[in-house]
Write a structure and sequence with these properties.
By secondary structure, the chain is an alpha/beta fold. The protein is built from nine helices and nine strands. β5, α5 and β6 form a beta-alpha-beta unit. The mean pLDDT is 96.
């Protein structure tokens, strides 16, 4: 059984939701943590929990949409830790707006955080992993990266792009000792819909019924940790909503019939 004890695990989007739950789960495994999100105060709250279980929990607050400044962040983290054993690209923002009403600047904003930031961070961390010939890159995608549905056009596009990029990266790293794991959660009970971007650039501030009835974030995190432990290439995490992934793949005519009827 693979142990994460004393592994250096860097988690982005760690202040809430799946990221927060992952931080606590890895702390309980004895991992040495690096936590990143924009809100330092919320990160500190997560650290106060994690430090009960692990000896090290560094805070690296940062707005990951500022991809042009990521190099300094990575340099500062590596200076503290020396290496990264597991990088978990979790930070992201969902969307609640129709394509026809979504300003193009919102689409750029969503792509910057959901696609370009994990790509940029991975490219900065990867050379060190290659030099050490060890490491694991994890990206938290979404079932929206498997099929598209209403009010998620750009978010879904970003997650489709994540899927394609990290699948290709995995193929490129096939002869190395570096693993790439893509996690696609379904409906998880987090604040993702509350923080979703609307057409006017503000937060949606509503809890979708699907989110409210979704899988508990702690249970989701445990399943993700299990997938990372097993070095799985991909893992779907969620409930019955995951059936749509298989319907899209094997029964596309049925998918097209029901996708427009999916509610938030």
């Amino acid at each position: 059984m693979r142990s994460f004890k004393n592994n250096i695990v860097w988690i982005t989007g760690a202040s809430s939701g799946i990221g927060r739950a992952l931080a606590i789960s890895f702390a309980k495994e004895g991992a040495l943590l690096v936590l990143t999100a924009r809100d330092r105060d919320k990160l500190q709250e997560v650290r106060n929990i994690c430090i009960q279980y692990t000896s090290e929990c560094y805070l690296a607050p940062f707005d990951l949409s500022q991809t042009d400044k990521l190099k300094d962040l990575v340099n500062s983290v590596i200076a503290k830790t020396g290496r990264i054993d597991v990088l978990i690209n979790n930070a992201g923002q969902s969307q609640r707006s129709l394509a026809v009403n979504t300003p193009f600047e919102n689409e750029r904003r969503l792509m910057e955080l959901n696609f370009f930031s994990p790509v940029a961070l991975t490219k900065l961390v990867l050379p060190r992993m290659i030099n050490l010939n060890t490491g694991q890159i994890v990206v938290i995608s979404s079932i929206s990266g498997k099929f598209g549905f209403t009010m998620r056009t750009t978010y879904s596009a970003a997650k489709h792009a994540v899927q394609g990029y990290f699948e290709s990266l995995r193929a490129e790293l096939n002869d190395s000792n570096i693993d790439v794991t893509i996690i696609s959660p379904g409906r998880i009970n987090t604040n993702v819909s509350l923080n979703a971007l609307t057409e006017n650039g503000t937060s949606y501030n509503q809890l979708d019924a699907g989110q409210a009835n979704g899988m508990d974030a702690d249970k989701c995190a445990r399943r993700i940790v299990k997938a990372i432990r097993k070095r799985k290439k991909e893992a779907l995490v969620g409930g019955t909503e995951l059936l749509m992934v298989y319907i899209r793949r094997w029964l596309p005519f049925l998918y097209h019939r029901i996708v427009s009827k999916i509610k938030n």
